[in-house]
Amino acid sequence: MLAEDVTFLRLQTVVVALTGFAEGVATTQIFSYCPRLVTVTDGPHSVAFHAGVLYCGNGLGLICATQLWANAGNRWGCHRCLYVSLFLTAICVGCCSRTGSLPMLVVLHCMRGLCNGILILGRVGLHRTHLKRGADDTGAFGWLGAAGAASSMAGPAMGGITYDAIPTLQYPWTLPYLCAAALLAVAGAAVFFFMEDTTDLHVADRVVAIENHLDVGGQVAASSGAGNDKEAAGVGGQGQTAPAENEEPRIERDEGQGETACGARPLLATRAPGTPDTTDDASATSSETLVPNRARAPCTHFGGALRGPAGPRRSQVDSFSLGMIVLVAGGHASVFMGWDMLYPVFASIPEDAGGLDWTPVQIGATFAAASGVLVLVCAVGFPLLVKRLGVVPACVTCWTPAAALIPLFPRVVQLLLDQGWGRHSTAVVVTNYAGQLGFSLLLGTGFVAAQMIVLDFAQGQPGADALMATATGWLTMAQGLGVGFAPLMMGSVSTLAQEAEANGSKLVSRNLPFDVLGGGIVLLCVAPLLLLPADAVPDLRSARAKGGV
Length: 549
Description:
Blueprint: H1 3-28, H2 34-42, H3 47-76, H4 78-96, H5 102-114, H6 118-132, H7 138-162, H8 174-194, E1 222-223, E2 229-230, E3 270-271, E4 290-291, H9 303-307, H10 319-347, H11 360-389, H12 391-418, H13 426-443, H14 446-459, H15 464-502, H16 512-531, H17 543-546
Antiparallel strand pairs: 1-2, 3-4
Helix pairs in contact: 1-6, 1-7, 1-8, 2-3, 3-4, 3-5, 3-15, 4-5, 4-6, 4-8, 7-8, 7-11, 7-14, 10-14, 10-15, 10-16, 11-12, 11-13, 12-13, 12-16, 14-15
């Protein structure tokens, strides 16, 4: 790959990472002060439930608009739609700064979700830009994860520090919302001036040799003597177009080599049965029928033991596997948002009720410390783990311990308080920071991991190019569903659990919501991955796959 291409791809990664960072800050800045905002606007009763209602507004809007943004990105390009989405979202967030009514805040959060196509447009656009140049995007998505981790650090910290920082403002939350809106506007300007227009990247250059040996769009193009491209049916996956006699398949090669320009094996490396292999002859011309190189190593995760060995190549999209992947994305988002909603409520329980009674600044500091380490993990650690194990085994390895950590955390804190340790004692503070750190490291990479899984799944299916945006849309919709309903459900469970504990119940305690989250990881995140067929998500990123083993 040329040096200017490397520089350009880095610029695109920085721009898209900035959009994810801005969106993450706008979403998470409310975490550290939401219980106090609800108390100011609606009174001290049922704080957890009403905080869940406020949290779910953005997710509900995402559910309704995700597919619209995906279709718009396909039609008009991710570049145009992304900066429009950023500016509209900034307007909605800015309006929240001038609102003192809880119902109106919920409405504005819903409108913000409707305007929010940031994640799907940025990710798909960046992936297509890498496909165009035959580059591996694992490292780029690692940096997107780092940006998301940084936003989960900066958001709660910024919200806690700026909440009521200027008493002369109309509302205590005015400044945090204004800062988030300004950051979204800056990201929109960066996209407008620096991001590549991807309107035609999913139409032109479908046969591009890339490092992952992928068949872009499930189609095989051949350049004729008249210069016309002949394409196979895309979404239906009905066969491939063979080059006419004495035609050279349109595959980019280096001079004197049978390799692609990016150093990987040719995209169309597998020939029809019974035909000789002339892949290494750069000057060879042939009338042989070429078939896509789908004979890649299957993903050897635990699903192979549960669902059997890899089967023959499918002519239709594997709807079962797509459903499982979407379920994983939604389940992870619900667990992650459930924790982000539950922890501030748990940490802000008044001292006379046996809680920590921590301030927004203290709560924001725990988010900041944990997410600061998560930035390094997303940028360096998790991509290395993916390249070593593959993306699906890496997710199972990280998520399984979290199922035990979440229910254990509140019990350890309560045990320390019962043993006489103070709310600000070293043991209690260290336990809180350790819980946040452990949760963030184990589940914080899940959003980018889910995107990697769905992109790799789409590339192994017929009509991959059209499926890429559609599957990403379903993934983002599922994440929006999880983000939307998990806080509402967790708020309701938390309120009921606290009331039951106050009434002397021996079966139900305030730890019940954390138990629900732990069970959610097992049922919604780990189990669906174990049920995936062995060939559902091709192993495209691990060292074993790239080494051709």
